[in-house]
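Quick one, tokens below:
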């Protein structure tokens, strides 16, 4: 009997009705659970029947009316009759069914029925679990969103795979009972296998990939299945399609307008993911309809101006005027670059006619740093409004794919999402998945299949969607908003898109992603594809489409005209654009060698190459270090025709050389710096370097710097020779792309400002906790890298590296500067006319870094080459007391000046001043020339930056002029 009970249980578990029949004056049924057996409808306890009685009762019920039993039992008894010996079927004796060959054959048939139903149920579940792996998510059709071309073996992608389930082509037109865990049947309970597969592919393998089967809540899983499996549920009315088209027009034409008017400006446009704007507006519309009246958003820089314009509805003239270099700051403060700024705006939501407040929180270039800020702001607003369920206030967080996977604060923010004192009752996360991070291929940027996998830790459903299918995106956004309103839990939308231009509009992506960008150049714009689709459907006419485009273009032009009358803060654009091709870079490098000169990149190359020849392993990691943030390094060459075919020339310099590892890292500082620190601990005979994309970014790894690098030897007697390369310099690039905060490193040095040591150079280095340098020449940079290995001990080395000096024509060194007998110069004295008559010199300017070249230019323009000496402090810490003392004595009649480009409360001044006074025994002062104290390390306003630079030079000139007039 157990076999029949199992069959009955399986059939019931698969969604079939109770097996029922009449016997003994009662209607009998078989319970879903196989151990409960069968019972009468009036008997609460299961009846215990023998094998023969169970089958006989079932058989009698079937004879009375074939509809009394499930169709599988009907098929079972029909097959028995058809295959039994002649005359046996006519006897209609149930006991005969239990004997001999007939029973054996019939049981085989029953087993096949069970196995086939189970196989189909398993197939349905396979699509629900893994269908997203074969969904058509990449608009470019060249990469796999999950980084894996493998097709799960349990998905029916070809007919021959039916064999995995014990099925074959002949079963495709057989009907199967659908389980209650699927909605693909709609009102139907059975479907042919061919139709089952077709509907599963439509639900899970088209332009939407759904990850949800890891959720451990049955109701939530059923809710999601219903949203994606129900036939015809992803339909849009003509009015909804026209609204979507209008929003897509605004998103696309806004970027086109900026590109036309300010083609040389960096704006981090949305090209390649224009659908983000209608996506956000759909989320807001649905949330507003559910009762939300305040939405707080956070996002990185890509697409921020478009979001401000078309979602927040910031006045266009207020955006456009920030591109005008002639405008002045209208308020105090340094401001920030325009794609970091936020806004607060209350307006009417036109789809719901309800008031809604939209806030976009300002965010630095630290990308995901805004995540917990947004959550805290949301929580506060909910708290003060008594919105304990998040029915009035909600948050939306936008992310880049590389940052979402690479930044630990994302994980930390997710783990706040359901803590009682921190929950905001569900956040909608929208990942703009460019499938690349700056120049780093996702295949080397993360270990997880998707960038969104971190969200699985809180059982958040993840909806992957092809961003070139606007209707699929809109549907996913609807579902996400409904999910948040229904369950008050986080949800993730993964917009799989592409980046039509480089990391910014001035960047050249063909250097590192040639195949991707060849396809992108051929890629038809989503607006063109969708407009043609709606025109073909008769939803809009070509004339209506063109009128809508012209209408928005006119709005932009009028705002542009109006913006010229504005007097508000101007935002500084970024610096130089990359060179046009790698071959030109390599030729330029070869030309330098022929002329026996080196620039910064070649000096680094020589340092690394010479160490490799000596058997020293060199490892350089960080964000985009293979090419270099400023497109100067190019240590990895990419084949322009073959994907993933690369060459690292430095690994082919010498026979039996050590290996060179250069690797773009995950978009993380905290984790990666810690990793490289550990790597450096393992082998003292290796040069391990980590480079920040900008020096400012090291602050997210401050815990590692403070607790391990600065104090590691003192706390644990652990030597470590890790090198931090931190791009530094006031270039007008905003407050987060200027200062590597040298004052912080210098504050943590342990050398005594009031005591001149009796030993210098190697012995002095041995006593310090780390070494801090700012090299002004490629040769000195090369020497300090080599010295790091040649020293008989290991100390952390902090190098403030240049940006504009990378290609500065005066920042060159000759090969003679690397000849035998040369070494790192802790201080570079003045070697010009002033040094020839030191007694006549009236001013000695000490400085560090790139400001030297600005000072030298100003000195020449004022014809003061004989009157002013400029001395470069290359090693800041430990302080070169001996060399400074020699220079002070040499220019004994001169006034001493410390000049720096950093603000007075930053940079080197607070560190060097007491040490200079110790050198001169407090007998003369050292005057400061530079920027005034400030809270931010740099301004984000172009006019302010240029004014500061001019004031900086004027102050120096006035001091010099005043001296010569007396």
């Amino acid at each position: 009997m157990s076999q029949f009970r199992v069959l009955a249980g399986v059939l019931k578990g698969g969604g079939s009705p109770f097996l029922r029949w009449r016997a003994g004056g009662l209607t009998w049924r078989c319970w879903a659970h196989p151990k409960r057996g069968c019972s009468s409808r009036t008997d609460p306890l299961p009846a215990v029947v023998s094998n023969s009685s169970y089958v006989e009762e079932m058989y009698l019920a079937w004879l009375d009316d074939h509809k009394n039993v499930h169709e599988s039992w009907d098929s079972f008894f029909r097959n028995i009759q058809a295959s039994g010996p002649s005359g046996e079927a006519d006897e209609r004796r149930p006991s005969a069914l239990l004997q001999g060959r007939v029973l054996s054959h019939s049981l085989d048939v029953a087993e096949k029925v069970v196995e086939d139903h189970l196989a189909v149920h398993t197939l349905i579940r396979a699509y629900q679990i893994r269908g997203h792996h074969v969904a058509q998510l990449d608009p470019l059709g060249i990469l796999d969103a999950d980084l894996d071309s493998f097709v799960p073996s349990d998905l029916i992608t070809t007919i021959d795979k039916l064999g995995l389930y014990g099925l074959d082509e002949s079963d495709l037109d057989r009907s199967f009972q659908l389980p209650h865990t699927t909605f693909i049947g709609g009102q139907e309970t059975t479907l042919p296998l061919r139709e089952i597969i077709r509907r599963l592919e439509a639900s899970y393998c088209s332009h939407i990939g759904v990850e949800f089967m890891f959720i451990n809540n049955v109701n939530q899983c059923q809710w999601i299945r219903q949203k994606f499996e129900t036939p015809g549920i992803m339909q849009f009315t003509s009015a909804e399609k026209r609204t979507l088209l209008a929003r897509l027009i605004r998103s696309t034409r806004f970027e086109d307008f900026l590109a036309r008017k300010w083609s040389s400006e960096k704006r981090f446009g949305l090209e390649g993911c224009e659908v983000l704007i209608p996506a956000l507006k759909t989320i807001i519309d649905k949330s507003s309809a559910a009762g939300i009246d305040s939405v707080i958003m956070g996002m990185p820089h890509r697409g921020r101006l478009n979001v401000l314009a078309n979602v927040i509805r910031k006045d266009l003239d207020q955006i456009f005027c920030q591109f005008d270099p002639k405008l002045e700051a209208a308020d105090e403060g340094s401001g920030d670059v325009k794609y970091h700024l936020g806004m607060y705006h209350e307006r009417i939501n036109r789809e719901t006619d309800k008031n809604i407040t939209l806030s976009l929180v300002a965010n630095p270039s630290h990308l995901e740093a805004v995540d917990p800020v947004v959550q805290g702001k949301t929580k506060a607003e909910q708290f003060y409004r008594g919105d304990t369920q998040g029915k009035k206030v909600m948050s939306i967080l936008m992310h880049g794919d590389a940052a979402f996977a690479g930044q630990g604060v994302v994980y930390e923010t997710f783990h706040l999402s359901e803590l009682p004192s921190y929950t905001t009752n569900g956040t909608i996360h929208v990942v703009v998945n460019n499938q690349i991070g700056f120049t780093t291929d996702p295949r080397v940027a993360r270990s997880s299949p998707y960038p969104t996998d971190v969200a699985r830790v809180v059982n958040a459903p993840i909806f992957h969607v092809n961003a070139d299918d606007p209707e699929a995106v809109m549907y996913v956004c609807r579902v996400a908003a409904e999910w948040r309103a229904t369950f008050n839990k986080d949800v993730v939308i993964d917009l799989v898109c592409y980046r039509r231009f480089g990391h910014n509009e001035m960047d050249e992506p063909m250097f590192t992603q040639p195949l991707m960008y060849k396809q992108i150049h051929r890629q038809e714009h989503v607006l063109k594809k969708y407009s043609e689709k709606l025109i073909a459907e008769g939803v809009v006419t070509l004339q209506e489409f063109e009128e809508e485009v012209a209408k928005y273009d006119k709005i932009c032009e009028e705002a542009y005209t109006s913006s010229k009358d504005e007097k508000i803060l101007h935002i500084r654009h970024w610096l130089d654009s990359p060179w046009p091709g790698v071959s030109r870079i390599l030729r330029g490098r070869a030309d330098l060698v022929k002329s026996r000169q080196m620039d910064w990149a070649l000096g680094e190359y020589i340092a690394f190459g010479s160490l490799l020849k000596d058997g020293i392993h060199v490892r350089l990691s960080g964000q985009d270090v293979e090419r270099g943030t400023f497109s100067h390094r190019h240590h990895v060459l990419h084949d322009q025709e073959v994907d993933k075919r690369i060459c690292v020339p430095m690994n082919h310099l010498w026979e039996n050389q050590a290996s060179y590892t250069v690797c773009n890292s995950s978009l993380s500082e905290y984790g990666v710096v810690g990793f490289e620190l550990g790597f450096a601990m393992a082998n003292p005979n290796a040069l391990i370097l980590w480079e920040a994309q900008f020096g400012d970014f090291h602050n997210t790894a401050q815990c590692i710097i403070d607790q391990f690098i600065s104090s590691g030897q003192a706390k644990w007697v652990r030597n470590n020779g890790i090198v931090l390369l931190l791009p530094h310099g006031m270039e007008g690039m905003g407050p987060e792309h200027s200062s590597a905060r040298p004052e912080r490193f210098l504050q943590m040095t342990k050398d005594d400002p009031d005591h001149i040591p009796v030993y210098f150079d190697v012995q002095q280095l041995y006593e310090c906790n780390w070494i801090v340098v700012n090299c002004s020449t490629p040769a000195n940079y090369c020497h300090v890298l080599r010295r790091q290995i040649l020293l008989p001990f290991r100390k952390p080395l902090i190098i403030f590296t240049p940006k504009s000096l990378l290609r500065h024509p005066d920042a060159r060194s000759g090969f003679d500067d690397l000849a035998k007998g040369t070494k790192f110069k802790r201080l570079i004295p003045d070697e010009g006319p002033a040094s020839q008559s030191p007694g006549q010199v009236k001013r000695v300017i000490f400085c560090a870094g790139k400001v030297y070249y600005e000072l030298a230019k100003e000195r020449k323009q004022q014809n003061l080459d004989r009157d002013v000496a400029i001395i470069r402090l290359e090693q800041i810490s430990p302080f070169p007391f001996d060399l400074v003392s020699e220079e002070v004595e040499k220019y004994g009649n001169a006034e001493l000046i410390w000049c720096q480009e950093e603000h007075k409360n930053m940079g080197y001044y607070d560190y060097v001043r007491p040490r200079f006074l110790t050198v001169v025994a407090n007998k003369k002062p050292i005057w400061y020339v530079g920027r005034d104290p400030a809270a931010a390390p740099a301004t984000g306003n172009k006019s302010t930056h240029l004014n500061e630079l001019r004031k900086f030079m004027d102050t120096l000139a006035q001091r010099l002029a005043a001296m010569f007039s007396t």
